[in-house]
Amino acid sequence: MAALGAVVLLVIGVFYKQFLIISFDLSLAHTLKLPVEGLRVLLLVLIAVTIVASLQAVGIALMLALLITPAATARLLTHRLHHMILAAAGIGTLSGIAGFYLSYYLDIPSGASIVLTMSALFALAFGLKSIWLWLSALRSKTPAETAIEPASPAQTEVK
To answer: What's the pTM?
Structure first.
């Protein structure tokens, strides 16, 4: 299983730029004369191999949570794909370790505690991002924009 993971990471590392191009800009990929269909099939095979190996190791519920939640959390924290991949890997690892320790000390199933840990990290990131956006929106308004302007003489005419 570890060898399979290493092979997947190696292939992704070798073809990272090509995968990035075919994922976001097919016309550029065709212009650069990349083998689009071959790269797309390779990417799908890598995803399928990862999912099948994960299913055998951890089960369907935990595999789906590990596939979606760290990536969604990382998307809230960064905008560059390379940073997002690293953040998602770190979030998944942190959630797995923390969830495992929680399951041991609280005597609950490890899969559920890992999923709940990932969900809690997502909720925390979502809440902090919302607060950050709200505060930055408040800071971007100048005092003149927030003040109530007096009515102009044209608006105060009485008929």
So the answer is: 0.70
Query: Helices 60-77 and 81-106 sit at what angle, rounded to 10 degrees?
Result: 130
Give residue-wise pLDDT tens across range 113-132: 999 999 999 999 999 999 99
CB-CB neighbours of 19 under 10 Å: 18
Of the candidates 49, 44, 82, 43, the one whose C-alpha atom is nearest the C-alpha of residue 63 is 49
* Contact (Cβ atoms closer than 8 angstroms) between residue 115 and residue 91: no
| Short-list 51, 24, 55, 58, CA closest to 40 | 24
Query: 72 is written with which tokens?
Result: 């969604």
pLDDT digits (tens, 9 = 90+) for 24-70: 888 999 999 999 999 999 999 998 988 888 887 788 888 889 889 99
Tokens representing 115? Answer: 């999923």
